[in-house]
């Protein structure tokens, strides 16, 4: 059996300093669509995403919150897991720069570069922007402020290690010029060449004033600065410089590395220079896409103008958000987001075009053939051939655009065929063919074929919608080879269901919700519900201890259940919780939780649960978290009665105690 072609795609690792916004979602949804497409091509895909968790900004925000930087990162990474799960981001691995294996590999990389003479010790003096974690020279400042975010900068001088970026300037420039596919956009390529030609200074790669990060292995007074920490994640996630580097040997170099254009310079100049210094091959393509803008400005956490993706997903569906970002997002250049455009895209494309085509076709099949797909006759009309030929040709058109990373244009081609099929309905007027069942059957058969073909293709872009269409068509064939005349001629017998995919929106009403009501919902405090009082003697019967989660995994054939192995001193218990919709199993490993120990064991899906983990939640589980000690404490520690007298009311009003 021939070995599958490899396809390694990455997003940037998102900085865990705050909530993600719609702009971040664009990059991840973009990468996800390319990963899904290449899986459809039967390639061996590895899709990486993650979070960048070190640096001064995280340390400062954690201090302000009164928690450790690790706890601060954990809180946000949990949110990132939840958001990517909601958006159906099908990543294969999530890397955190606080992961032990990454820390170890980065220290080895730093030492290797130092031993090779590519890193040296000196001192740095310049302007530092804390929100952007970036140093700037006097000439790079814009009106005395950070050229990226426009915020204040601080003068900084300290001893530091430097990477010899200037040494690799000519090599990087020549590589960009001699590899036309290395940088996707010509404008970006020209900008990078111009930047190099202005002269590259050596790069500061350590700090003494920042302690939250990876220590320089041979000088503990220094912390490795962001670029030698963050950029190598694309290598360390594959096991580079570890005992098991099989994934690195299998997948590196990356096929596609995606990011937004504000970090283009780091990925197109600094990253290749580091790889050259390590004597490693460079990625095949780096694409720094445009910005999703809000009122003409880039969406950004530090700018505070990013739209909350949860509001859009919860009200309009995940695929509506995915569709807008992929079809109208900043794939090849900056693109605006406003509520009016988003809502009109739903009504025009998803309701008028796709949902209307499915609804009309399935309704006529149910009305005239009891939903059954009739076989195709031999009496083929020119109008039929035109539709079928355009549908068959669609596969190659989509493939060509996806190869060029132009997912927006690929989606546009799909919807051209959808609109062509709607026009086909108007031109053939099937409602006039009730007396000619053969012709009517052919028309509906051709429409069925178009719907099936676009559903197969839409699996790469809006997968939930694609599955709903296939279900309505009573068809489980999802291979790209089904988009052919041969397949069209042989399919028959499926029994369709009349299905409505998307509902038409009242644009003005929805704009009111997004601009006023959604903000009001966020600002109004939730009403706290209370249960009847219990006697303290009854509550005192509970035995509650602190446990440490050793392992976590999903329960087979149970979407909501996770199985935990929890350590209580020398004892290890199995506990099942219905929290799979809230937590990634990998995130829970190592966490300390409060557990009820003397709850009678019971079997759930064949697994005996020997206790109960306590959780806090708000109505509808919109906010959800496990209860953990204020600071780390020995596993098996008692939660004593003297503490319970202080927290009993809080526990009874806020905790969700799952009966397991």
Chain-wise SSE layout:
Blueprint (H helix, E strand, L loop, with lengths): L5 E10 L6 H19 L3 E9 L3 H10 L3 H18 L6 E4 L3 H16 L3 E11 L4 E3 L17 E10 L5 H10 L7 H12 L5 E2 L1 E2 L6 E3 L2 E6 L1 H5 L2 H4 L9 H6 L4 E5 L3 H14 L7 E5 L2 E3 L2 E2 L10 H8 L1 H11 L6 E2 L2 H31 L12 H22 L3 H22 L8 H22 L4 H10 L12 H6 L16 H17 L12 H4 L4 E11 L7 E7 L2 E7 L7 H4 L3 E5 L5 E3 L2 E3 L2 E6 L6 E3 L14 H14 E3 L3
Give a description of the structure.
The chain is of the alpha+beta class. Among the domains are: 1-97 and 290-337, Rossmann fold (3-Layer(aba) Sandwich), CATH 3.40.50.620; 338-490, Isoleucyl-tRNA Synthetase, Domain 1 (Orthogonal Bundle); 536-657, Nucleic acid-binding proteins (OB fold (Dihydrolipoamide Acetyltransferase, E2P), Beta Barrel). It is 43% helix and 19% strand. Strands 16, 17, 18, 19, 22, 23 and 24 form a 7-stranded antiparallel sheet that branches. The longest helix is centred in the middle third of the chain and has 31 residues, at 339-369.
For this structure, what is the CATH homologous superfamily of one domain?
A: Isoleucyl-tRNA Synthetase, Domain 1
What profile does the largest beta sheet have? 7 strands, antiparallel
Q: Could you say which overall geometry the principal axes of the C-alpha atoms support?
A: globular
The number of helical runs is: 22
| Rounded average pLDDT | 90
The strand count comes to 24
**What's the level 1 CATH class of one domain?**
Mainly Alpha
Uncertain segments are 301-305, 643-650, 652-660
What is the terminal separation in angstroms? 47 Å
Please report which band the strand proportion falls in: under 5%, 5-15%, 15-25%, 25-35%, 35-45% or over 45%. 15-25%
CATH A-level architecture of one domain: Orthogonal Bundle
Instruction: Indicate the percent of residues in helices.
Output: 40-55%
Helix and strand composition category: alpha+beta
CATH-assigned fold name of one domain: Isoleucyl-tRNA Synthetase, Domain 1
Radius of gyration of CA atoms, rounded to a whole number: 28 Å
């Amino acid at each position: 059996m021939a070995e599958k072609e490899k396809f390694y795609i990455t997003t940037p690792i998102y900085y865990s300093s705050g909530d993600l916004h719609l702009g971040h979602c664009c990059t991840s949804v973009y990468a996800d669509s390319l990963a899904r497409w290449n899986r459809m091509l039967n390639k061996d895909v590895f899709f990486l995403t993650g979070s960048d968790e070190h640096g001064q900004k995280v340390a400062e925000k954690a201090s302000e919150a009164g928690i450790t930087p690790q706890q601060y990162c954990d809180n946000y990474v949990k949110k990132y897991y939840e958001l990517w799960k909601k958006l159906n981001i099908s990543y294969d691995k999530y890397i955190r720069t606080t992961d032990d294996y990454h820390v170890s590999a980065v220290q080895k990389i730093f030492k290797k570069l130092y031993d090779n003479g590519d890193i040296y010790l000196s001192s740095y003096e310049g302007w530092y922007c804390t929100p952007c974690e970036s140093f700037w020279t006097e000439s790079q400042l814009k009106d005395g402020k950070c050229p990226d975010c426009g915020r204040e900068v601080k003068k900084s001088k300290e001893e530091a290690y430097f990477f010899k970026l200037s040494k690799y300037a000519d090599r990087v420039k020549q590589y960009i010029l001699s590899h036309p596919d290395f940088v996707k956009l010509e404008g970006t390529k020209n900008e990078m060449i111009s930047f190099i030609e202005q002269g590259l200074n050596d790069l500061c790669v350590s700090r003494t004033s920042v302690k939250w990060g990876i220590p320089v292995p041979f000088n503990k007074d220094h912390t490795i600065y962001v670029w030698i920490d963050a950029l190598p994640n694309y290598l360390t996630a594959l096991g580079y410089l570890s005992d098991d580097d099989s994934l690195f040997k299998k997948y590196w170099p990356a096929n596609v590395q995606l990011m937004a254009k504000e970090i283009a310079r780091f990925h197109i100049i600094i990253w290749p220079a580091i790889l050259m210094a390590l004597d490693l091959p460079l990625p095949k393509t780096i694409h720094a896409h445009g910005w999703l803008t809000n009122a003409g400005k880039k969406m950004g956490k530090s700018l505070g103008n990013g739209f909350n993706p949860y509001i859009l997903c919860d009200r309009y569906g995940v695929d509506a958000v995915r569709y807008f970002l992929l079809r109208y997002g900043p794939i090849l250049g900056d693109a605006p987001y406003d509520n009016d455009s988003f809502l009109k895209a739903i009504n025009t494309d998803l309701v008028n075009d796709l949902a209307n085509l499915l609804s009309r076709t399935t309704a006529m099949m149910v009305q005239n053939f009891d939903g059954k797909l009739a076989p195709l006759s031999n009496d083929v009309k020119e109008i039929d051939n035109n539709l079928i030929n355009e549908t068959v040709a669609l596969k190659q058109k989509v493939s060509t655009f996806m190869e060029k990373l132009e997912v927006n244009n690929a989606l546009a081609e799909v919807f051209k065929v959808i609109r062509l099929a709607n026009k086909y309905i108007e031109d053939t007027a099937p409602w006039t063919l009730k007396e000619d069942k053969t012709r009517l059957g052919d028309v509906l058969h051709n429409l069925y074929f178009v719907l099936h073909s676009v559903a197969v293709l839409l699996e790469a872009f809006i997968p939930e919608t694609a599955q709903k269409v296939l279900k309505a068509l009573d068809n489980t064939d999802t291979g790209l080879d089904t988009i052919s005349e041969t397949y069209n001629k042989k399919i028959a017998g499926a029994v369709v269901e009349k299905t409505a995919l998307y509902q038409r929106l009242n644009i003005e009403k929805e704009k009111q919700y997004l601009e006023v009501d959604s903000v009001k919902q966020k600002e109004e405090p939730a009403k706290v519900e209370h249960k009847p009082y219990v006697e303290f003697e009854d509550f005192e019967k509970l035995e509650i201890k602190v446990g440490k989660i050793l392992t976590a995994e999903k329960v087979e054939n149970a979407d909501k259940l996770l199985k935990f192995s929890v350590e209580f001193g020398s004892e290890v218990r199995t506990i099942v919780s219905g929290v799979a919709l809230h937590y990634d199993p990998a995130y829970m490993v190592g966490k300390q939780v409060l557990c009820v120990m003397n709850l009678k064991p019971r079997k759930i899906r064949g697994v005996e649960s020997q206790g109960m983990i306590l959780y806090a939640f708000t109505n509808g589980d919109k906010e959800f978290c496990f209860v953990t000690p204020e600071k780390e404490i020995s596993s098996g520690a008692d939660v004593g009665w003297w503490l319970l007298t202080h927290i009993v009311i809080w526990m009874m009003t806020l905790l969700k105690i799952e009966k397991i």
